[in-house]
Write a sequence for this structure.
């Protein structure tokens, strides 16, 4: 299973559409950039995908919780 306590806590908020910040999207995107820079000699396909998804978010999403990334599917930005 892919369950974790962190996902379980986030999932309930995502279903409710509650993206009040616990860890802001802007900070997650910054940290993803640092991680990708550190691993620049590695393929890291999943990290690169996650980073591209964060880049698809709107500017008003930057102060919301990083789990707002799931909303890209709801908005139809990802099919």
């Amino acid at each position: 299973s892919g369950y974790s306590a962190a996902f379980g806590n986030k999932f309930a908020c995502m279903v409710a559409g509650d993206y009040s910040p616990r860890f802001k999207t802007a900070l997650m995107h910054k940290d993803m950039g640092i991680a990708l820079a550190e691993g620049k000699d590695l393929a890291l396909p999943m990290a690169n995908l996650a980073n591209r998804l964060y880049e698809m978010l709107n500017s008003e999403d930057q102060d919301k919780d990083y789990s707002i990334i799931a909303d890209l599917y709801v908005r139809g930005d990802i099919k």
